[in-house]
Write a structure and sequence with these properties.
globular
């Protein structure tokens, strides 16, 4: 728990700075949108591409693990989307954002340091596999549903909605980065030093930028509905998701312990701050996404160490 606190304290500090600057009027409301656009269009793709490209995915590709992790992720995502649609009658776009919040983990910001801290160096490589699954498949589905919803609502008129949405998906920088990084890793091509340094320098701006914008969003009045939504998402993300993952990987498939540990701990991570950026970009109630990121990170200080103790003992 102490290690988790030290790793997450800079996260809360940057959020607090964004909150303070917005409250004091040092930055205007339009700044959050600009910062989010920079994060999601430029900095986050650089971070994702480099993080995935430098990991030896081809050496740790375990088909049964990938299939099981993907199946559980899609199951939790689908159940969350359906539950919110059934009980809140929210639009498909908003339900998709809730599903993403319940399944997309903070892999780059917290996943690598926490899993390597608990599992040792062997914890780094599975993170790259999980990244490809969560971001390359689940995030892609989430963005697709949000984009289709916008097209059908008329906020983005398209002559041919399905073609337009697919073209938009193909042009999405985050998805391009995930698949390009996975391809580079798969063929085991070493990135040039200058390119690696450039991407590292640019990607380092992703998390602080998104977290600062998140703090600005929290400076607005947070409704009781936002907190209620954030709590539901956090419970699904921090409790239900890793428990189902544990049952499937450990009890049903009985995979090797390192895959069970990596899968459960990856699922037990809090919601990725990139989900806030995606919701802000698609105008899908970003204040609720911001609350979910913050609350899940706070609660993970309790739930993640418990899962780490349970699966590693």
């Amino acid at each position: 728990m102490k290690e988790f606190f030290f790793l997450t304290s800079p996260i809360f500090a940057v959020i607090a700075v964004g909150f303070f600057c917005a409250k004091r009027g040092y930055v205007g409301p339009e700044s959050a949108a600009a910062l989010t656009r920079f994060a999601i269009m430029i900095a986050l793709p650089a971070l994702l591409f480099r993080t995935i490209a430098v990991q030896p995915v081809h050496q740790v590709f375990e088909l049964s693990f990938v299939t099981a992790f993907l199946t559980v992720s899609l199951l939790i995502y689908s159940l969350t989307v359906l539950a919110f649609h059934r009980f809140t009658h929210a639009s498909i776009k908003l339900c998709a954002s809730r599903g993403g919040g319940a399944t997309i983990s903070s892999l780059g910001l917290l996943g690598v340091p926490l899993l390597t801290g608990v599992l040792g160096p062997q914890g780094a490589a599975p993170i790259a596999v999980v990244m490809v699954v969560e971001l390359g498949v689940v995030m892609a589905i989430c963005i697709y549903m949000m984009t289709v919803s916008k097209a059908k609502s008329g906020s983005e008129p398209l002559d041919h909605p399905s073609c337009g949405v697919m073209m938009g998906m193909l042009k999405n920088p985050m998805l391009i980065a995930v698949f390009a990084g996975g391809a580079l890793s798969a063929v085991d091509v070493k990135m040039p030093i200058m390119a690696d340094r450039f991407l590292a320098f640019l990607g380092a701006a992703a998390s602080p930028t998104a977290l600062f914008a998140l703090g600005m969003m929290l400076a607005r009045a947070i409704s009781l509905d936002s907190l209620r939504t954030a709590l539901v998402i956090s419970v699904v993300k921090l409790v239900l998701y890793p428990l189902v993952m544990w049952v499937v990987l450990g009890e049903v498939l009985q995979l090797d312990s390192r895959w069970v540990q990596a899968g459960v701990l990856a699922a037990a991570l809090p919601t990725a701050n990139s989900m806030f950026a995606v919701c802000q970009f698609h105008q899908a109630q970003p204040e609720r996404a911001a609350a979910a990121v913050l609350l899940s990170t706070v609660l993970a200080a309790i739930t993640f160490p418990l899962f780490a103790w349970a699966v590693v003992r």
